[in-house]
Specification:
By secondary structure, the chain is α/β, with parallel strands linked by helices. The chain folds into two domains: about 20-45 and about 310-420, Aspartate Aminotransferase, domain 1, CATH 3.90.1150.10; about 55-310, Aspartate Aminotransferase, domain 2 (3-Layer(aba) Sandwich), CATH 3.40.640. Helices cover about 40% and strands about 15% of the residues. The chain is built from 14 helices and 17 strands. It has helices at about 20-25, 50-65, 75-95, 110-125, 140-150, 170, 195-205, 225-230, 255-260, 295-310, 310-330, 360-365, 380-385, 400-420, and strands at about 30-35, 35, 40, 100-105, 130-135, 155-160, 180-185, 210-215, 235, 250, 270-275, 280, 335-340, 350-355, 370, 375, 390-395. The strands form five sheets. Strands 4-10-9-8-7-5-6 form a seven-stranded mixed beta sheet, with helices on both faces. It has a four-stranded antiparallel beta sheet with strand order 13-14-17-16, with helices on one face. Helix 11 (about 310-330) packs parallel to helix 14 and helix 12 crosses helix 14 (about 400-420). The N and C termini lie far apart (about 45 Å).
Length: about 425
């Protein structure tokens, strides 16, 4: 069972979902590319930013710019308040039990590396095992390989079926006394598959194994309740959920975070330093060495405000309808094959066109102002599973429209005509 979407009360008040009005909040969507309206369908790579987020970051630089935590002057106190209030908003948004459980990082990639190096590396010995899946992003493969190469552990991979769904029965049989960690993606950035992570966490916990969830593709499309999931760690990025680049969050259960040594050393993660001994700071600052992306944190807080003020349930329904419309439209094109047809999918459609390389597809679509992603999408092992070198990926957000899907379909027919 997946976590249900829910509305979060906001002092601004819940605004009804109207895609035409919503699009007005995103200034970049108003521009043209080569004289043609921008059709932005690369949201799985990064989402566009509403004016509310841009204004919050500009306001920080224009009115509050100062380093945080260590200053006693007015600007420093003001900037610290703005930054730390963003942490409070994030804690509430994901329903973390304690504000100390939300660690600011550069993004999902750094969050996974932090857990791999500071938690798993210290809790594994030669011969131990870590479970990941065949649909992972490179960011949820390479960090574990680094631990493997240093500690001599084994990485075990959950297989997938032809629809792009994990074999949960086989996953359950992979556990033994050597299993020390599970790290799995919530929503695949290539297939759009929504994995049954709550069930998978329950299975892992029966064997006493902690679980990290890569939620980079989840937070833009559903509210996540980390206490309901009972995950040990949850990682996500600001730029995937209409916020700034260069900032993200690692949620971790407080007992794990307290037991973990710092990931990096430097300012703000210490209480005191001498040449003989350093005493580390309390959570969450123990894992936040150096000057952070302050404007990014402030912007992420504004992102939460923006999401909270809309009827998010209606936005999710709009995306669901858009996905069905796009899937049906693409499926009607002769010679086009969708990669990933899971029963539970989010707003990603990857496809291949017979005898046409995805890079050629992307280039011609770009001439029509249509932005899609082509390549292996940082998931080369998954490409190997489906025996394709690359795909074209169209990914949707709540500001996309059926008219933009129609433009995509028209563009693909033009691609086919060029190569026929």
């Amino acid at each position: 069972m997946q976590p249900t979407t829910k509305l979060i009360n906001s002092p601004i008040g819940i605004q009804p979902f109207d895609v035409k009005r919503i699009r007005e909040d995103f200034p970049i969507l108003k521009q043209s590319i080569g004289g043609k309206p921008l059709v932005y369908l690369d949201n799985a790579a990064t989402t566009q930013k509403p004016q509310m987020v841009i204004d919050a970051m500009n306001r920080y630089y224009m009115e509050e710019n100062s380093n945080i935590h260590r200053g006693i002057h007015y600007l420093s106190e003001l900037a610290t308040q703005s930054y730390e209030s963003a942490r409070d908003k994030i804690q509430k948004h994901i329903n973390a039990a304690h504000r100390q459980e939300t660690i600011f990082v550069r993004g999902t990639t750094e969050a996974i590396n932090l857990v791999a190096q500071s938690f798993t590396r210290y809790n594994c010995k030669e011969g131990d095992e870590i479970i990941i899946s065949a649909m992972e992003h490179h960011s949820n493969i390479v960090p574990w390989q680094l631990v493997r190469d240093e500690k001599g552990i084994l990485i075990r991979v959950i297989p997938i079926n032809d629809n792009g769904e994990l074999f949960i029965d086989k996953y359950e049989k992979m556990f033994n006394e050597k299993t020390k960690m599970v790290s799995i993606v919530h929503i695949s950035n290539v297939l759009g598959t929504i994995n049954p992570v709550k069930e998978m966490i329950e299975i892992a916990h029966r064997f006493g194994v902690p679980v990290l969830i890569d939620g980079a593709q989840t937070t833009p499309h559903m509210h996540v309740d980390v206490q309901d999931l009972d995950c040990d760690f949850y990682a996500f990025s600001g730029h995937k959920m209409y916020g700034p680049t260069g900032v993200g969050v690692l949620y971790g259960k407080i007992n794990h975070l307290e037991s973990m040594p710092p990931y990096q050393g430097g300012g703000d993660m210490i209480k005191s330093v001498s040449f003989e001994k350093t005493i580390y700071n309390d959570l969450p600052h123990k894992f936040e060495a150096g000057t952070p992306n302050i404007a990014g944190g402030v912007g992420m807080g504004a992102t939460i405000d923006y999401i909270n003020q809309m009827d998010f349930e209606a936005a999710v329904q709009h995306e669901t309808e858009l996905m069905k419309y796009a899937t049906d439209s693409l499926s009607s094109i002769k010679g086009l094959r969708i990669i990933g047809t899971a029963k539970k999918k989010s707003s990603v459609i990857s496809f291949v066109l017979e005898n046409i390389h995805p890079h050629d597809v992307g280039t011609i679509l770009d001439d029509d102002g249509i932005a899609v992603r082509t390549g292996h999408h940082c998931a080369q092992p998954l490409m190997k599973c489906f025996e394709v070198p690359a795909t074209t990926r169209a990914s949707f957000a709540f500001y996309n429209t059926k008219e933009e899907v129609d433009a995509l379909i028209k563009g693909i027919h033009r691609v086919i005509k060029v190569f026929s």
